[in-house]
Amino acid sequence: MLTVETLQKESHRIAREHGWWEHYSGTNKATEELIVMNKLMLVVSEIAEVVEEIRRGELDFDCIVRYNEDSGKPVGIAVELADAIIRIADLSEYLGVDLTEALLVKQIYNETRPWKHGGKKV
Q: Looking at domain 4-20+28-112, which of 2.40.340.10, 3.40.50.2300, 3.40.470.10, 1.10.287.1080 is its CATH number?
């Protein structure tokens, strides 16, 4: 069973072992902020890839994992959403965030919020 804690640790381990953190040791605060913003933009890029899948007409409500016929690489909306979660888990582990606790706290808080709080349309 995959837990959020395991997802964080494994995502960060894999990212480190595959070179995604090689230039980020011994940094100062300003550099650290840029690192975090860079990693957050990678999350945004994964969400943009979901949008691109939809724009290409790939939105099917099964959202099953598909594989590229040539490379065997998993593709599709489900995979891009997973990529965004993996990047968030990786960054959370780097920052020392207890994502399990944060998710639980936020869910409990969200349960107390009014209907469409903040007047948002969507």
A: 1.10.287.1080
